[in-house]
Design brief:
Structural class: mainly alpha
Radius of gyration: 20 Å
Number of strands: 0
Shape: globular
Low-confidence stretches: 297-306
Order of helices and strands: HHHHHHHHHHHH
Number of domains: 1
Length: about 300
């Protein structure tokens, strides 16, 4: 492993580590309504990203990209879709963490790669390998075990996986610089967030500016907590292969699962363990098949070049 790859692993690994610990941050805001947390997260993420663009001298790129979207309706619709999908994802995650569903959020992010496979097959007409079909079947079995044993569909996990999977699909259509992309996405929903916060303030139901200084700082800091992992992820993703990035992504839900069980004492039954075993097995098969597929492609490319 060369120094460039090592640096990429550190950056990407650190980003997933931060995402895995993010529930602790939202737990500190448990007294604030999830919608208000989301609105603050959107607003302060947008403001923080504007500062980042100025410091990284990407303001020109931001304006150029924004003008390009205005002229390209397909990309503009994709941007709007991405903005609302990530907002749904953020809201569901914040609500779930602060309402004792942290284990289910980890389930959502474990099955997310497999949901992306399904979306790729349906929307992009991608062909799956034999092992990818097996991995999807095992994951589906894991979800069904939880559904039938508890008599309740794991809607938190499915909404998180679907919204993030569809978000990734929309991002494929946009294909812009990550920091510019996040700024544009938050810009799209910032007016709604700002109006909601103003209404709360006038009704006297706002936590921001009326709660403790600590709560105010945490709400403002939501922008930093959102942007920093994404920026590290972008730096890491540029330096390492997609297959390695695929393995690293499981750091976040694993940390969240550990936090849910051991720190926040959420109930983790034997049935849930069985369901997770099915999903972990599915992810292992999927990751290994993907790695082998990429390796075989490289071998073919080298033989052609030779």
């Amino acid at each position: 492993m060369n120094s460039n790859t090592k640096q990429g692993v550190i950056y990407a690994g650190f980003s997933y580590f931060l995402w895995g610990l993010l529930p602790i941050y939202w737990k500190l805001l448990h007294g604030v309504n999830a919608k208000e947390i989301l609105a603050n997260r959107v607003l302060w993420s947008f403001i923080f990203m504007l500062i980042i663009l100025l410091f990284t001298k990407k303001w020109g790129l931001f304006i150029k990209t924004w003008k390009g979207f205005a002229q390209n309706k397909k990309q503009m619709y994709a941007l709007i879709s991405a903005s609302f999908l990530i907002s749904i994802n953020w809201y569901t995650y914040i609500w779930a963490v602060n309402n004792g569903h942290m284990i289910e959020t980890s389930l959502g992010y474990y099955i997310n790669p497999l949901v992306s496979i399904l979306l790729g097959m349906i929307v992009l007409k991608e062909k799956l390998s034999f092992y990818q079909y097996i991995s999807f079947g095992l994951a589906a079995t894991g979800v069904l075990i939880i559904t039938f044993s508890h008599g309740q569909f794991p809607w938190v996990a499915i909404i998180l996986a679907l919204s993030f999977g569809l978000y990734g699909l929309a991002k494929k259509m946009i294909n812009v610089d990550s920091s510019v992309g996040l700024t544009l996405e938050t810009l799209t929903v910032t007016p709604i967030a700002a109006i909601y916060l103003i209404i709360l303030l006038f009704k006297g139901n706002s936590s921001f500016l009326t709660a403790s200084a600590g709560t105010n700082l945490l709400l403002i800091g939501a922008g930093v907590a959102t942007a920093v992992p994404l920026l590290y992820f972008a730096k890491g993703a540029q330096k390492i292969p997609l297959s390695l990035l695929g393995f690293l992504q499981y750091i976040a839900p694993t940390l969240t699962l550990i936090l849910g069980i051991f720190m926040y004492k959420e109930h983790f039954s034997k049935v849930q363990l069985l369901s997770f075993i099915f999903i972990w097995t599915a992810l292992t098969i999927y990751s290994l098949s993907k790695t082998n597929l990429l390796s075989s492609k490289r071998i073919k490319e080298k033989s052609i070049q030779g």
